[in-house]
């Protein structure tokens, strides 16, 4: 079974990712993994930490001479900032440094310290931090390399920041490959230069006020063939897996697939994608309201998923809180922070979608070696060529 675990604290020595269930013989391009790590570090509105880090993976297991050998793959990403935190984050020795006692509304601080019985909120915030997503992106980049072998690509872009949206008509007429090239030159991974200017202005204003912003990103998966996921059980549905995976990203608070929340205002006659058939090419649709999934199963159309990120909880003009020692009112903790991280979250969204798709495809076609896997995919594709 394809699965992974990440470890590491934000200001600890390193993050790790251990990936299990990759077929043997997969050629892994480490440069592609590092390129995605670099993309995750970008985005107008990110804080000082991204100037310190330069994320790169080091492979520790599961790969020989560039190819997987079937055993678990381990990647390590060193935290450069560790050099500045060795005293406060030492794995052994007496506690040093001031305790964090003013929980930030919106972060894991208060529920985490109650649950884990900690007196220093740092014990919670270090792991709650989205620094962990660097390790996930390394896993996602591997998943994308599995998907690429069968012609599946995953792209993401930002569609809204702080209420400023990409123009609706532009969104409708831009396909996934155009999106990939358009976002190359954008600091926010946004396809609409005009909207991007307004988004940047909104981020600047938020920063000046000691405030923060959230937004929406979209993930599109192309080249998908019908049959990934299943209607049989709730936890095999591709839509439920994608929603859960996207929702697992720190600060993501809503996910929609296809027309999503827009369905509420539509009659059935406008909501579904009529089915057509052409000899030679088979079944096809003229619309994609479903976002590529019907009955929890991919239907062969592009998969389209959007997620909303709440505004960053660490505010330089802090909200009210309560000191966890004295119980007296206090301003919430402030520390170095992003003002807006939707661009980075989009890359993480792309990652999580790729992980779900790679999991579904490896589950369906199995194979201990990459050749077995590809043969099985080919045989299935032949069968469904109707
Ligand atoms: C890429 C990324 C960067 C983030 N950067 C920050 C940050 O600098 N400061 C902060 O307070 N929260 C940041 N967050 C959000 C917190 O990690 C998140 O709000 C927190 O984990 C609690 O969110 P939850 O309620 O969704 O779990 C970031 C999230 C992501 C995805
Ligand atoms: C380190 C990353 O994001 C961090 C996510 C984060 C949080 O609370 O989620 C808080 C900030 O950490 P720091 O206090 O070290 O600046 C962000 O920089 C990263 O994305 O690599």
UniProtKB/TrEMBL annotation:
Pfam families: Chorismate_synt. Reduced FMN (FMNH(2)). NADP(+) binds at residues 40, 46. Keywords: Amino-acid biosynthesis, Aromatic amino acid biosynthesis, FAD, Flavoprotein, FMN, Lyase, NADP. One of its GO terms (molecular function) is FMN binding. Its EC number is 4.2.3.5. PROSITE patterns: CHORISMATE_SYNTHASE_1, CHORISMATE_SYNTHASE_2, CHORISMATE_SYNTHASE_3. Pathway: Metabolic intermediate biosynthesis; chorismate biosynthesis; chorismate from D-erythrose 4-phosphate and phosphoenolpyruvate: step 7/7. The keyword Iron-sulfur does not apply. Its cofactor is FMNH2. It catalyses: 5-O-(1-carboxyvinyl)-3-phosphoshikimate = chorismate + phosphate. InterPro entries: Chorismate_synth, Chorismate_synth_AroC_sf, Chorismate_synthase_CS. FMN binds at residues 127-129, 250-251, 295, 310-314, 336. GO terms for cellular component: cytosol. GO terms for biological process: amino acid biosynthetic process; aromatic amino acid family biosynthetic process; chorismate biosynthetic process. NCBIfam families: aroC, PRK05382.1. Belongs to the chorismate synthase family. This reaction introduces a second double bond into the aromatic ring system. Homotetramer. This is Chorismate synthase.
